[in-house]
Write a structure and sequence with these properties.
OB fold (Dihydrolipoamide Acetyltransferase, E2P), 7-stranded parallel β-sheet, 25 helices, binds adenosine-5'-diphosphate, binds magnesium ion, ATP-dependent DNA helicase RecG, DNA damage, DNA-binding, hydrolase activity, RecG_dom3_C
Length: 686
């Protein structure tokens, strides 16, 4: 349970002063629901108040502080025009203080005529006149109480910066002194203030890098600690030692020799599986680096030892594809491979469940369905999760708890993640990297074209198809809703069918499973030559004959995502082309991003750049999975602080695995503050 000391922070902001229904929506849009949300809504920039005695000396566009005397009121003619208070500086220069809204009583009361006031706000030129909209007003003798630096917050329509500052003030008023969780020597070395002081300092002065770093550290530390608790709880469970005798693997007939990287990863996995503590390993490898073979070797290792293996894919399409691939690779071996997805119902499903329970099925491939309650394994020894970035820590935890004996866990991701992000999001796992591509890959040429040249693109597509090739046509992300993605894809398919007829297939995320599979199968079997798709084809789909991919609205995708999409081609024996269609008015960042895509095919480089340009959520694809991104720490903070946070969390757990000591208790508070409740829950009984 969350400690009482945090309760004021987790109170709803509807309890704040001055929060009416009109503010509810704008606040909700910003995700501000509780005091803690507001407290962590850190300023994005600041303005320095220019203190002056004379309007003539002030620049329009700047926030100024000045003593003014109201001399006249100008009530609005129409209901929508603002109420104006005319004021003068001590040299008689004029400025209008502008109030929107019908009620003129309030400005009249605030600014009685001929009484000097200290006024602060943004000076604007409006036609020939100067004006300040909704200024701060103080008695002149209190002018010094106004900070010289004003924080600027991220806002949504209906919220003003002043309003936000007021809410932040109320949230800070609720912030308690918290026990210190940071290791004392680190705290001293960094000269960091206490948590509460740091929070106050950052809101008062967004340029306060020291205080800012402390808050970032807290968040990173909570994340690291939570992952360590996951690791600790998983490794405390008894696993099964698995050492296959190699008889199945020896019979595999592969048309190629494994790369050095594949051999290394397989060795690391075998080493882990031979231990009684369950494996927690992340296999990172760019698109096409050959993760499937590594997974198969691990699965066969389990089967040889009389255990079962399960392989989890994020989508139906991928599950089916893995199923086919594994069966093909393992054909001729005495291994029973089955598939289970949410679509399998009735008799077939019953048969699969029976086979799993009695052990006649050795390897199960499927979607989430394979870890549901009803699915009982006779002896699950290994779980492989493909395309991890769609799953969060919570799902990993659920998985680890599925069997009475903890299965070994291998997580595979095709998103090459920069090291600091790997630590941040997969810090509980050991890492194997496939940093070597299988030989003989055909190059992919990447071109960027304006979408206005669509006709040329379609002509090029026609030539490609006439020449016996196949192509993907990926439709842009329209907003963030699947429905509109679907509409875009359907429209594109329709317009292409006008020219290419039945050669055009369509697949999108909202299609029914069987229809989706049928469309994929038709394309894989070359019955259709053009596959119009939304990003459902993003991960893993493998049709080697397809050597052209056209990506519409390329500037709207994350770089890592573009890289994934591009990885759909370049799989066969022909050189491939990736056409990135961009909008006509591109910003500088978009331009730079697309240029990078043209320049390199190195997934790790692209991921680093994506991290810099768009942030962690984009690289990880966490927006889709809903896993919370970091709120306080920037990528720079993560890069600078994750190692010490990790060491610190590690040391703490090593000394005090139950978090019972005084510092351990403080660390619990930190975990709750960042809503790692589930991780604290792992301590119980542990
Ligand atoms: P990933 O899942 O990592 O994107 P895959 O496992 O689908 O990659 O492998 C991509 C392609 O490379 C497959 O067609 C596979 O058969 C092939 N492949 C895998 N390992 C090798 C290797 N060592 N040498 C040559 N081809 C390989
Ligand atoms: Mg794959």
């Amino acid at each position: 349970m969350r400690p009482d000391i945090l309760n004021p922070l987790f109170a709803e902001i509807s309890l704040f002063k001055g929060i009416g229904p009109a503010l509810a929506r704008p606040l909700e849009r910003l995700g501000l629901r509780r005091a803690v949300d507001v407290a962590f809504h850190l300023p994005v920039s600041w303005v320095d108040r220019h203190l002056t005695g004379e309007l003539d000396m002030a620049d329009a566009g700047r926030v100024i502080g000045i003593e003014l005397t109201p001399v006249d009121y100008k009530a609005s003619g129409s209901a929508r025009a603002p109420f104006r208070v005319h004021a003068v500086d001590r040299y008689g220069n004029h400025v209008a203080l502008v109030y929107f809204g019908k009620n003129s009583g309030w400005p009249r009361k605030l600014l009685p005529l001929n009484e000097p006031k200290f006024i602060s706000g943004k000076l604007e030129a409006y036609g020939d006149t100067l004006q300040i909209v909704h200024p701060d007003v103080l008695p002149p003798e209190e002018a010094h109480t106004l900070p010289a630096r004003e924080s600027v917050y991220g806002l949504s329509e209906g919220l003003t910066n002043n309003r936000m500052r007021d809410l932040v003030g109320q949230a800070l008023g609720r912030a308690p002194d918290l026990p210190e969780w940071i290791e004392p020597s680190l705290l001293a070395r960094k000269d960091w203030p206490t948590w509460r002081e740091a929070l106050g300092r950052v809101h008062a002065d967004p340029a306060d890098a020291v205080a800012r770093a402390r808050l970032a550290y807290d968040e990173i530390f909570a994340g690291q600690l939570a992952l360590m608790l996951v690791r600790q709880s998983s490794r405390r469970r008894r696993g099964v030692r698995i050492e296959g005798d190699g008889r199945l693997r020896a019979m595999l007939k592969l048309p190629f020799a494994p790369t050095g990287a594949q051999r290394r990863a397989i060795g690391e996995i075998e080493g882990d599986m031979a231990q009684a503590t369950p494996m927690l390993r992340l296999l990172q490898g760019d698109v096409g680096s050959g993760k499937t073979l590594v997974a198969l070797m691990a699965l066969l290792n389990a089967v040889e030892a009389g255990k079962q293996g399960a392989m989890l894919a994020p989508t139906e399409i991928l599950a089916r594809q893995h199923y086919e691939t594994l069966r093909k690779m393992a054909s001729g071996l005495a291994v029973e491979i089955a598939i289970l997805t949410g679509r399998d119902k009735g008799k077939a499903r019953e048969a699969t469940l029976m086979g799993l329970a009695d052990g006649s099925i050795d390897i199960l491939v499927g979607t989430h369905a394979i870890f549901q309650e009803a699915v009982q394994y006779k002896a699950l020894g290994l779980a492989v999760i493909d395309e991890q970035h769609r799953f969060g820590v919570a799902q990993r935890m659920m998985l680890a708890n599925k069997a009475s004996q903890a299965p070994h866990l291998l997580v595979m991701t095709a998103t090459p993640i920069p090291r600091t992000l790997t630590l941040t999001y997969y810090g509980e796992m050991d890492v194997s990297r496939l940093d070597e591509m299988p030989p003989g890959r055909q190059p992919i040429q990447t071109l960027v074209m304006a979408a206005s040249r669509l006709d040329e693109v379609v002509d090029a597509l026609a030539r490609h198809v006439e020449g016996g090739g196949q192509a993907y046509w990926v439709c842009p992300l329209v907003e963030e809703s699947e429905t509109s993605d679907q509409a875009a894809a359907e429209m594109r398919a329709e317009s292409l069918r006008a020219r290419f007829g039945a050669r055009v297939g369509l697949v999108h995320g909202r299609m029914k499973g069987p229809d989706k599979d049928a469309a994929m199968e038709a394309f894989a079997a070359n019955r259709t030559q053009i596959l119009v798709a939304t990003t459902v084809i993003e991960v893993g789909v493998d049709v080697p004959n397809s050597s052209l991919i056209i990506i519409e609205g390329a500037d709207r995708f994350g770089l890592a995502q573009l890289h994934q999409l591009r990885g759909r081609v370049g799989r066969g024996d022909k050189p491939s082309t990736c056409l990135l269609l961009r909008g006509n008015a591109l910003g500088e960042t978009s331009r730079a991003r697309l240029a990078l895509m043209r320049e390199t095919n190195d997934g790790f480089r692209i991921a680093e750049a994506d991290l810099e340009l768009r942030g962690a959520g984009e690289v990880l694809g966490t927006r889709q999975s809903g896993e919370a991104a970091l709120k306080l720490a920037t990528p720079e903070h993560v890069a600078a602080l994750v190692d010490s946070a990790r060491d610190d969390a590690h040391l703490l757990i090593e000394r005090d695995g139950g978090l019972d000591s005084v510092r351990g208790q403080a660390a619990r508070t930190c975990l709750y503050l960042f809503e790692k409740d589930a991780a604290v829950g792992l301590l119980r009984g542990g």
